[in-house]
From TrEMBL:
Protein name: Biopolymer transporter ExbD
GO cellular component: plasma membrane
Keyword annotations: Cell membrane, Membrane, Protein transport, Transmembrane, Transmembrane helix, Transport
Membrane disposition: Single-pass membrane protein; Single-pass type II membrane protein
GO molecular function: transmembrane transporter activity
One Gene Ontology term from the biological process aspect of the record: protein transport
Biological source species: Lutibacter profundi
Amino acid sequence: MSKFKKKKKGLPAISTASLPDIVFMLLFFFMVSTTMRETDLLLQPIKFPSATEVKKLEHKSLVSTIYVGKSKDARISGDKIQVNDKIIDVKDIPSFIFSERALRKEEEVKYMTTSIKADKEANVGTILDIKEQLRDINALKVSFSTKGTNIRSNY
């Protein structure tokens, strides 16, 4: 007989020392990769017109968006224009575009695009007024958002 008994060794306990590191790595990853909504829509939800041939915008960071639609307040009639988080008048569009240009580098200004997201029930006169204001300040790259079925892009 032996004086010493062999103790059976089981599996060692799982170390949780690195668990906080993993949690903070995941938290940091999601904080960096998530984009927040830039503007809150003050208009009724926009119903986009349909299109058959559409093209994706390439430089989405260089896009200034103008929303056109009906106000959420039922007492206010007519089309409303929203940029960022405020309702503006047509005559305020040049100052909006100039402020957007001021935020960009000088070499990026020529690649800037103005995107008009208009409701399909919006008055064409309002959109023409917006286009005229954009033409007056030489903002000639304009895109219209649609719900397209055939999206094609140039790669």
